[in-house]
Write a structure and sequence with these properties.
5-stranded mixed sheet, elongated, Trna Endonuclease, Chain: A, domain 1, 289 residues
């Protein structure tokens, strides 16, 4: 039985158009075919018609009945279909919170907030949407600080952000001169972190220096370079492609918090895009249109 709550179903009713018994643009036949092709599931099975035979009632029953991973797989398939519909119709993009809330639900079903907790560390407390707002306000407040104070504040911000989303730092984020260093584990892979909070965008030199540090580590070590003020186009071009570094800027952090996209989804999406096209930096608006 899945951990989808009543409040989650109210959100899904709206996101998947289930208020009147429908599910997106599916007919009975196309919903049956979709579940058979995508999930190898017979959604017409009578075990899913306990509350009624409408498409929405069968889907709700299925999502309540199956385990969390099966529910997550179904929701991701349905979300992909929803995106395809909107692209085909050339609809306006979703509001800032719809996709974020959907991804939060997927995270919960897949156990993501706790999956990277180190042994011996207490499970992370549950948190709501207000936590995204708190982090966004803290990030914006950095603008008003003088550089040295901003460095310490950014260090604490990153430490709290990573820990809150289950990416417990293997080495705590530490201020060293004009940069912040740290490391964490995500998806079984070790990532070194370097962050800068300068007022001007980062060019190629600090990226090359950081990549040089990675080359002195194990071959499987990867890097996340966070630049509060972003990166110059010339610097990214000079840094080149097919590197072991993925770049994140302050706008990425702000946009993901504003749209309630978890840090894990942000980083995993950037890592996947870099693996696909070799580019170290892809902005949030491109990753999550």
């Amino acid at each position: 039985m899945s951990n989808i709550r009543s409040i989650d179903f109210r959100f899904l009713d709206e996101a998947l158009g289930m208020e009147s018994g429908y599910v997106l643009d599916f007919s009975d036949r196309t919903l049956r075919d979709f579940f058979a092709d995508e999930l190898d599931v017979d959604i017409d099975d009578q075990s899913y018609a306990k509350d009624g035979n409408s498409k929405a009632k069968r889907l709700r029953c299925y999502l309540r009945t199956v385990n969390d991973l099966s529910a997550s797989k179904a929701l991701k398939a349905l979300w992909g279909h929803r995106i395809a519909i909107r692209e085909r119709r050339r609809d306006e993009p979703d509001g800032s919170t719809v996709q974020g809330r959907f991804l939060q639900l997927i995270d919960k079903l897949e156990g993501r907030p706790k999956s990277n907790t180190a042994a011996g560390v207490a499970p992370l407390p549950a948190f709501g949407i207000e936590k995204f707002h708190d982090f966004k306000e803290r990030l914006v407040a950095l603008n008003s600080l003088e550089p040295h104070r901003r460095g310490y504040a950014f260090e604490k911000f990153l430490q709290d952000l990573f820990n809150t989303f289950g990416l417990v730092a293997r080495e705590p984020f530490r201020l060293k001169g004009e940069q912040i260093d740290g490391s964490f584990i995500m998806g079984g892979e070790t990532y070194l972190v370097e962050a800068k909070w300068h007022n001007s965008p980062s060019g190629a030199e600090p990226l090359h220096v950081f990549h040089g540090k990675l080359e002195q580590k194990a071959a499987w070590a990867r890097g996340i370079f966070i630049s509060y003020s972003g990166f110059t186009a010339e610097g990214l071009h000079a840094f080149g492609r097919a590197k072991r570094v993925v770049c994140v800027d302050g706008l990425d952090l702000h946009e993901s918090l504003n749209r309630e996209i978890t840090l894990i989804h942000l980083l995993e999406s950037k890592v996947r895009r870099a693996a696909e096209n070799g580019e170290p930096f892809t902005c949030v608006s491109t990753l999550f249109p």
